[in-house]
Amino acid sequence: MTSAPSSLPESPAGWRPAARALGRALAGRVLGLAAGLHQTWRRSLQVRVVTITLVVSSLLVGGFAYLIANKITDILVENAKADTLLRLRSGSDYSAKQFYLYSQPQEAQLQDTIEGTVNYLAGGDPQQTSGVVVAITADSYTGIIETRTSPATDVRPLVSRELRAAVAEGKVAHQIRTGRLGGERTKYLVYGSPVPTRFGQLELYYLVPLSRQDATAADARATVLATGLALVLLLGLLAALVTRLVVTPVRVAARTAQRLSAGLLDQRMEVNGEDDLALLAASFNQMATNLQRQILRLEEMSRLQRRFTSDVSHELRTPLTTVRMAADLIFAERDEFDPAVARSAELLQAELDRFEELLTDLLEISRFDAGFAMLDSEPTDLVPVVHRVADRLAGLAERAGVAIELDVPSTPVIAEVDPRRVERVLRNLVGNAVEHGEAKPVLITLGMDRTAVAITVRDHGVGLRPGEEKLVFNRFWRADPSRARQTGGTGLGLSISLEDARLHGGWLEAWGAPGQGAQFRLTLPARAGDRLTTSPLRLVPADAALPFGGPRAGEVLAIGPAGGGALAIGPGPAADDGDRAEVRS
């Protein structure tokens, strides 16, 4: 007869992988359970309050039960000691009278008298079934006088050497010992007393079982613990109910606040009663109503402001066209005018150009504010875009004494972008760098990785002071209000560039340091709609020499508000320049 093959490993070594796998599974489940409990503890106020109440009340009730049980036990033992001591003294006096007639331990009737005395003392116990054992010994006359006990049993295991020595010295002593006297293991109160005679000293011992006292103490402990457990459960239930009464309105308020923050401005809490929680709900509703009214008012004001800006910009187009025609005619004939009049015609033409650019930027800003700006993405090679921007601003750079340097790949850099908007962003960044370049070179760098493309514009001009990295993208902001614009900008270029970057789902960031110039970085996803995580180029230039105590090269000193960012300081990788430490609001 053949047996079925076993699926268990035959050797102990075969168990080890299975044991390790089982251990890992158990460890994973334990860690998962611990993580779940920790998360519940952190998230639930009710769980924390109920748990703390249960733990504290359990400690208090446990300590109280321990003290009560010990006190009851001590009282029962003391009563047993007092009763046993009283009987011991009476028995010692009776025994002394019985042995008074004997002057020698060898007398024939002494042993019978000892046995009769022991039986009398044991029979004199009103509770004959209590298990009390009476014994008379004579340690000084071993071999002459035998030990007698009633009932007959061996008491030597329960009478210790120390107790015998104390009684032999004429003292009344006692001990609590645990042992067997022909039955179950029991705790005994052992009392010993000397019995004086004419020929010497005998020892009388009472062994009183403490079973009844132990049972009474155990019943008392059980009663106290049961009462304490019921009290703890009652306190836990009470804490849960009270906490629920408080936590439920708070949870409702939290959910209502989340709905309000999501734009559901008509959400309100239910008000029940007139207590403090009802007052909280009423105050919350009043706050929500005021916020709703204020938000609607601000939205209406913003809408009117955007519409006003758009309408004014459109309305100014007609008179601007008329003025432009007249100005072009005057500018064309300026050579025939007096030099002062000719200069005025040139200034008029320049300011009209700037005014027209301002109107164009205002219209673009109004479209961004109204949410009407649309992105027309298409696969575009950014290398020609960078060259085209550099060529168009070459004349401006030559007048400012600034050299524009390019660091672009020799191969095409293709990305799905809106070429018109990207070119506008680059024109604004390069024009801003030329204006603040202090006749020092401006470097344009183009880089790409698998997910993103980036363009940096680096100048070596006056730079930016700490905190200005957040302000440089604000509308009409100037680092130095007293400084006149050299390029005739409108003050909206960087704001529009920021909106163009956001429309692409990209980042526009700024770094600067006083006396070291500034660098702007435009990062766009290589595929339209992708989410950016890193940038191919470094925000902080490698040649930046930051002051002592500041971040080292390779760290992000400041992030512009590309995506609602604010000033941030954080480490950037030394080799991989995909550093990103933007704080989003």
From TrEMBL:
Q: Which Pfam families match?
A: HAMP (PF00672), HATPase_c (PF02518), HisKA (PF00512)
**UniProt KW Magnesium keyword:** no
Q: Which PANTHER family match?
A: HYBRID SIGNAL TRANSDUCTION HISTIDINE KINASE C, TWO-COMPONENT HISTIDINE KINASE
The family database entries (SUPFAM superfamilies) matched by this protein are listed as: ATPase domain of HSP90 chaperone/DNA topoisomerase II/histidine kinase, HAMP domain-like, Homodimeric domain of signal transducing histidine kinase
Q: Name one GO cellular component term.
A: plasma membrane
> Where in or outside the cell is it found?
Cell membrane
Cite the Histidine kinase domain residue spans from the record. 311-528
Q: Which reaction does it catalyse?
A: ATP + protein L-histidine = ADP + protein N-phospho-L-histidine
Tell me which UniProt keywords the record has, alphabetically.
Answer: ATP-binding, Cell membrane, Kinase, Membrane, Nucleotide-binding, Phosphoprotein, Transferase, Transmembrane, Transmembrane helix, Two-component regulatory system
Query: What does the record give under GO molecular function?
Result: ATP binding; phosphorelay sensor kinase activity
Q: What residues form the membrane-spanning segments?
A: 47-69, 222-242
Superkingdom, taxonomy of origin: Bacteria
Task: Name the enzyme group at the top EC level.
Answer: transferase
Q: What is its EC number?
A: 2.7.13.3
InterPro entries membership? HAMP_dom, HATPase_C_sf, HATPase_dom, His_kinase_dom, HisK_dim/P_dom, HisK_dim/P_sf, MtrAB_MtrB, Sig_transdc_His_kin-like_C
Protein name, please? Sensor histidine kinase MtrB
Q: Which membrane topology term applies here?
A: Multi-pass membrane protein
Domain named HAMP is located at 244-296
